[in-house]
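Supplementary notes for students who missed Thursday's class. We covered one full example, reproduced here. Read the sequence, then the structure, then the short commentary at the end.
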Amino acid sequence: MQKRLDSRSKLGLTVIVFTVLVWILAVIFLASPTVSITTPSNNATVVLGYSLTFTASARVTGATIASVSYYCDAKFVGSSTSSGFSFTWKPATSGNFVFTAVATDSRGKTSRQSLPINVRIPSDSDSNGLPDEWELKYFGIIGNDPNSSPDGNGYTLLQDYQAGADPTNYYSQPNPGGSGAIMITPTLSYVSGSRQVSTAGHYTDEPLVVQLANSSGGVVVLPHAPVTFTASAGQVVATGGTPGATATALV
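Structure (token representation):
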């Protein structure tokens, strides 16, 4: 009787061990990878025009991690197969974005999405009243002086932005008679010095003086308006410049 009980005990123990081994092998075989974004931290901020690097930590039992894919607002934006699984993202617009990651192992199994990471891209990081996106579009940098007038037409960058004018084009100006922007149509007239003839190697007796006026309203005379001069023969000399200096374009 005792021997029979021992045999049954051994059989039961064998079954238990076998079941545990099968369960362990099943767990290993069926295990899916896990992943978490390690950098940047949640609620990170990056300035428009700069890049942000993501890294992730991924693990799996019984296989290796093949890749980590990154998603921005549920849209795939990139992946990495190297250690650390780094990915560099450069924002195209300002706003708030949510990033997640998904790992894939060497068996093709994928993880659940990682916990989300929120990233903020401020619209006006330097608080100068000019959106970063607008500054980058026209000047390639941010931090421009909103009270400056790089195109020389007398309107500030802030006025150009508010009106929707092109701040790099002198003739694109805020509408003085209403909202929005207008494109100035210039009219060039000779003030003096036209129709002069000089021999080769000599200056004309008088300088050529021209004036630009606005033919479509707004200011009558256009101060500092850009004008391009070309010479079919000889040279164009800038008045007020270094004696003997030559140029084919004058402002």
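Commentary. The chain has three helices and twelve strands. The CA atoms of residues 152 and 224 lie 6 Å apart. If anything here is unclear, bring it to office hours.
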